From TrEMBL:
Name this protein carries in UniProt: Folate-sensitive fragile site protein Fra10Ac1-domain containing protein
Composition-biased stretches (Polar residues): 1-12
Chain positions covered by the region annotation Disordered: 1-35, 205-312
Organism name: Rhodotorula toruloides
Basic and acidic residues biased stretches: 226-257, 276-297
Skewed-composition ranges (Basic residues): 298-312
InterPro entries: Folate-sensitive_fs_Fra10Ac1
């Protein structure tokens, strides 16, 4: 009896196993894609509820160089007083050769060009000084036939002035304006280009000059057109005033008289009056005529000499 009890108690069920062991078994058990998705989603929600702070993103040295690089640095600045990011950019700046620049003329039609200084490998191979400095030019790399003609396969001499390409090169000094750190800067840069790339470099300046001349011509033409419009407005004003005066004169000549007489012509020209007003007007006119006659007789009497009566 006791043996049976001991045997039954020695066999433990799956619920009696430790939780850590059971969790390991469940984790290692195969799962479907849907179960895996649910598990990862629950894990994501647990992280979002806990609001685990994101890990700080570290910057690579290349990113630091892009942020702190300057095309032309001030030589009076002490490098030891700079931050380590600026010191890294300054150290890279000192490795560049700033006699001639390499140019990118991809967007030359819009007037946007890009410049950079040459590296040590480019200086030793003569790229940008004995070849065309445009990165997209076919004469940018040394000609294989010219390199094959060199003695003992020696590298090109950087001090030599003989071009390593089968074309004519031009040395140009150009003003280069650029935006750096939100500040507009300008510096003089020397480049070596072939004739075709030199035309592309001058294209933007030539186009800008043509645009300025066109704008000046349009402005002068606009001023002349404005003067012509003002003169036309002045002439129209004078013409309208003269026409207004002529119309006033015609209306004044054609206007009937405000004082009507008793003649048949005046009565026909004016509106017909009521009988009582017509009689009143005639009465006043007759009184006026009698007054004028009496005044005329008095004037004639006063003008004649007085007669003297002789004594009888």
């Amino acid at each position: 009896m006791d043996r049976g009890c001991r045997s039954s108690s020695s066999r433990a069920g799956p619920s009696d196993e430790p939780a850590s062991k059971r969790r390991r078994v469940e984790t290692l058990a195969p799962e479907t894609a849907h179960e895996r998705h649910q598990r990862l989603f629950r894990l994501k929600q647990s992280y979002e509820r806990g609001r685990v702070p994101p890990k700080p993103q570290s910057k690579h040295e290349l990113e630091i160089l892009k942020e702190r690089h300057q095309f032309v640095r001030d030589s009076d600045v002490d490098p030891s007083a700079l931050t380590w990011e600026d010191q890294l950019a300054y150290k890279y700046y000192e490795t560049l050769f700033k006699e001639f620049a390499v140019v990118n003329l991809k967007h030359y039609k819009s007037g946007a060009i890009a410049l950079r200084w040459r590296t040590e490998d480019e200086v030793l191979s003569g790229v940008g000084q004995l070849t065309c400095g445009s990165l997209r030019c076919r004469y940018h790399e040394p000609s294989p036939s010219i390199l094959a003609s060199l003695e003992d396969d020696a590298p090109p001499d950087p001090e030599s002035t003989a071009p390593l390409v089968e074309t004519t090169l031009e040395e140009l000094e150009m003003p280069f304006g650029y935006l750096e750190g939100g500040v507009k800067k300008t510096t003089l840069v020397k480049v070596v280009l072939c004739r075709e790339c030199a035309k592309k470099l001058r294209y933007g300046r030539k186009k800008a000059k043509e645009e300025r001349e066109k704008m000046a011509l349009v402005a002068s033409g606009g001023a002349e057109a404005a003067e012509g419009r003002d003169e036309e407005k002045r002439r129209d004003g004078e013409r309208s005033r003269s026409e207004r005066r002529e119309s006033d004169e015609r209306s004044r000549r054609d206007r009937p008289s405000s004082r009507w007489s008793d003649s048949s012509g005046d009565e026909d020209a004016g509106p017909a009056l009521p009988p009582d007003l017509r009689d009143e007007r005639r009465r006043r006119q007759s009184e006026g005529e009698r007054n004028r006659e009496s005044s005329d007789r008095s004037r004639r009497r006063s003008a004649s000499p007085h007669r003297r009566h002789s004594p009888q």
